[in-house]
Amino acid sequence: MYVFFVLPAALLLFFLYLLPLARILMISATDGQGFVANYGAVLTSAPIHRMVWTTVEICAITTVATLLISYLIAYVLLQVSERTRMWMMLCILVPLWVSVLVRAFAWIAVLNNSGPVNSLLQYTGLTDEPVQLVRNQFGVMLGMVHYMLPFGILPLYAAMKGIDPKLISAARALGARPFTAFRRVFLPLSLPGLYSAFVIVFIFSLGFYVTPAILGGGRIVMIAEYIALLISQGYDWGIAAALATMLLSVVLAVVFIAGRFADWDSVLGGSRR
Amino acid sequence: MTLPKSVPGNILRGLAWAGVLFLIAPLLVVIPVSFTPERYLSFPSEALSLRHYETLLFDRRWSGGILTSLLIASITTVLSVVIGTLCAVGMWRIGGRRMQLLRLMILAPLIVPSIVHALAFYKSWIDLGWLDTVWGVIVAHTTICVPLVMITVSAALSGFDHRLEYAARSLGARPLTVLRRIILPNILPGVVSGGIFAFITSWDEIIVILFITARKVRTLPQTIWSSIMERVDPAVAAISTVMVAATLAAVIIKLTLAKRAAPQP
User: Fold this and answer.
1) Does A67 map to a domain?
2) What superkingdom does the record give (chain A) (predicted)?
């Protein structure tokens, strides 16, 4: 009887999600001049190489920066008073729930040539000409770190909350200095949370479309936008599907390898509250 | 364990505050921009103007987009809450290894990059004749939203006592009755938060929309997208202000309720 409860979801996801997805994988092997030609083009084409390097570079820098800042904020969040935590949480949760389009637009409003940052720079006499802050790699990375931070902070905070504070007190009582107690006791215990934050932030950054497309202004093109451009301009399904397949493979590999070390219970438990 | 009130402790706190303000500040900048009397992005210098809010109400691109998005998000929410809740309860009852594979399949849309499933929907929707239809968008959004409901409902079920269900069943209740009278009232918070997730996800979704709609179906994110891409229109600042204000109100309500519900230590 309970099988009928599961059936609608199973059928929907199988026929209208997995099958369409499998067709894309098929297309990457059959469309155009076939498997070898499609993947060969991906491996040898100079523009695709440049795009892949841009993607890897932006994704790596974004992930590292997001995780460092998230760790710091989550750590401080654990220690501040109830009242301060409420205020900080407000500042973290509002961006999390605001549309990605609104957030990318907000950065355009802040960073454009007549925006507040440029006005301030000119007012203080640091520059005479407006500085180009968006439609370049800097703008893309700033927007991406801004988008990813709540996804880094919340899993880390959830995991850190599960660490018994008595362990740190014990280390201190046994003579460890504050930094040693942090490095030898707290940091290792927080690693599972760091892994889950890493998986979430990395896979989101790698396939990110909206923010790079808006803040990159067509000059910085990451893999997701590149695939979309192939479809909308050239109708080159074979190569687009091959790129999509490779993107999907990398994401799945990261999820299954790094995901093994991650602390999913506290992440999902954290979202329950 | 508290940060010492020392120089390094203060530096850490200061840095964390800087990070948190970095998160919220850009969202607040859109508010003054939305009141500019000009046709381009600028801060109002003298007079404030509501003209961009009027655009939202009276320009068909905006008002139509808002209505279409509300329609799509509402139907998507109902469908994915029903399908996702049933599935979570079914999997919870059946259990075992066989369900692991199914769980993996149903959670796939959370892991697969949006651009990849946008391509997949596009290709298959062409053949099904669902391109540029409200129905096509609802189906695509429902497949993406079912896993969100599954996660929140499964989390709620993990805190629910199996024996209550056994007791009801042994007293002769049929599964649907058990679901309605015993399980649902207990997991309602999970169902509601799943529904909220689903609504927001569908309401904000843009990547799949860019592929599977053209002229007939125009959602709000699509209008925002083309306004940003073609010429940066201050009407985007107006809709952004509305959305930031709504989110702010919702988060404040949620945090206040959570504070009240939390057991005082």
Assistant:
1) yes
2) Bacteria
Structure tokens at A256: 């299954």
The first and second tokens of residue B242, run together, are 């509305």
Which residues make Cβ contacts (< 8 Å) with residue A83, sequence separation at least 6?
none
The span from the CA of B256 to the CA of B254, in Å, is 5
For residue range B2-21, list pLDDT tens digits in order: 555 566 788 999 999 999 99
**Three-state DSSP class for residue B89:** helix
- Contact in structure between A115 and A132 (CB atoms under 8 Å): no
- Burial of residue A130 (CB within 10 Å: 0-12, 13-18, 19+) is middle
Residue B35's CB: how many other CB atoms inside 10 A? 19
What count of CB pairs under 8 Å joins A to B? Answer: 261
d(CA A204, CA B117): 14
- Other beta carbons within 10 angstroms of residue A147's beta carbon come to 24
Query: What range does the domain containing A167 cover?
Result: 45-272
Q: Which of residues 54-93 of B touch A (CB under 8 A)?
A: 82-84, 86-87, 89-91, 93
Domain spans of chain B, in order of start: 75-239
* Nearest Cα residue in chain A from B33: A109
> B64-82, pLDDT tens digit by residue?
999 999 999 999 999 999 9
The whole-angstrom distance between residue B63's C-alpha and the CA centroid of its chain comes to 20
Cβ atoms of A27 and B127 within 8 Å: the answer is: no
CA distance B142 to B201: 10
CB of B211 within 8 Å of any CB in chain A?
A: yes
| Chain B closest-CA separation from residue A269 CA (Å) | 7
pLDDT of residue A125: 81
CA angle A104, A106, A112 (to 5 degrees): 95
Quote ipTM for the complex.
0.90
Put simply, the answer to whether A165 touches B1 (Cβ < 8 Å) is yes
Is the per-residue pLDDT at B134 higher than 90?
A: yes
CATH 3.40.30.10 matches B75-239: no
Q: Which of B111, B142, B200 sits opposite A203 (nearest CB)?
A: B111
Among A90, A112, A150, beta carbon nearest to B41: A112
Question: What's the CATH code of the domain at A73?
Answer: 1.10.3720.10
Spatial separation of the C-alpha atoms in residues B140 and B121, rounded to whole Å = 7
For residue A147, pLDDT over 60 is answered with yes
Q: d(Cα A144, Cα A62) in Å, to the nearest integer?
A: 7
In total, how many domains does chain A have? 1
Identify the band that residue B265 occupies on the pLDDT scale cut at 50, 70 and 90. very low
Please count the helices (runs of H) and the strands (runs of E) in chain B. 12, 0
Helical packing angle, A237-258 and A187-206, nearest 10°: 170
DSSP B91-121: HHHH-SSHHHHHHHHHHHHHHS-HHHHHHHH
CA distance B75 to A38: 39
Ranking A206-210, A268-272, B58-62 by mean pLDDT, the lowest is A268-272
